[in-house]
Amino acid sequence: MEETISINDIFKTLKKRWKLIMLLTLIAVLISGTISYFLLTPVYESSTQILVNQKKSENQLDSNQIQSNIDMINTYSVIIKSPAILEKVIDELDLKLSVEQLSGKITINSQENSQVFSLTVQDSNPTQAVEIANTVSSTFQKEIKDIMNVDNVSILAKAEIKENPTPVKPSPLLNIAIAVVVGLMAGIGLAFLLEYMDNTIRDEKDIETLLDLPLLGSIQKISQHK
């Protein structure tokens, strides 16, 4: 016997189990909000901008030199996160981090055909994020002269501490919105699962559906009067 579910049956199920759906959604929101606001450590971000451009006395621009500088950014991205730079940063700031841990806090972003790239640092301490970003940039600018025998790095913009720094993650509102969607999906899924597993016969229609036989009659319940 095939069972078909109509749109009306779906709405009936949702109406019947709406309290369960709302309860699971509320639980998901409470869990997400608690984790986002009280358990997850806020992470702050700070960035510097670095220009790769060969310093020359004349004002004439060399297109080949510009393209060479652009191509060098990929190499510089590797050098910045290497022990040759980061070990000096760790010593200067007296950080309790390994080179691998500090490297994991640093992200290098560059735009196509641009001689400028950004160095971004994420840390749970906004002041330390600024200090690391500026120290890595200045150390790289100083050390690259000996490492590559070039003098083509300038710091365009230093990282600065904001008056009221805002963490970049976690994002409580986004997490709560996701929790609402997940809670609704879980609640609706559980509602239909419970409805599918419920074999209780409630009326004549359920008997006809279950037995696939026409209903010939019914016996009414007669209350006894003393």
Structural account:
This protein has 226 residues and is of the alpha+beta class. It folds into two domains: 16-39 and 170-201; 44-157, Alpha-Beta Plaits, CATH 3.30.70.1130. Helix content is 55%, strand content 12%. It has eight helices and four strands, in the order ααβαααββαβαα. It has a four-stranded antiparallel beta sheet. α2 (18-39) runs antiparallel to α7 (172-197) and α4 (83-93) packs across α6. It is elongated. The model has no long low-confidence stretch (mean pLDDT 86). Belongs to the CpsC/CapA family. It is a multi-pass membrane protein. The chain crosses the membrane at residues 20-40, 173-194. This is Chain length determinant family protein. One of its GO terms (cellular component) is plasma membrane.
Produce a short descriptive summary:
With 226 residues, the protein is an alpha+beta fold.
Draw up the topology in text:
Elements: H1 7-16, H2 18-39, E1 44-52, H3 63-80, H4 83-93, H5 99-105, E2 106-110, E3 116-123, H6 126-147, E4 153-157, H7 172-197, H8 204-211
Gross geometry: elongated
CATH level 4 superfamily of the largest domain? EIF_2_alpha
- Contiguous runs where pLDDT drops below 50 for at least 5 residues: none
> Roughly what is the average pLDDT, rounded to an integer?
86
Describe the strand arrangement of the main beta sheet, using strand numbers: 2-3-1-4
| Relative strand content | 5-15%
CATH class of the largest domain: Alpha Beta
What is the total domain count? Answer: 2
Helical proportion, percent range? 40-55%
CATH-derived architecture of the largest domain: 2-Layer Sandwich
CATH topology of the largest domain: Alpha-Beta Plaits
* Total beta strand runs: 4
How many individual helices?
Answer: 8
Order of helices and strands: HHEHHHEEHEHH
Helix- and strand-based class?
A: alpha+beta
Subcellular location: Cell membrane
Family: Belongs to the CpsC/CapA family.
Organism: Peribacillus simplex
Membrane topology: Multi-pass membrane protein
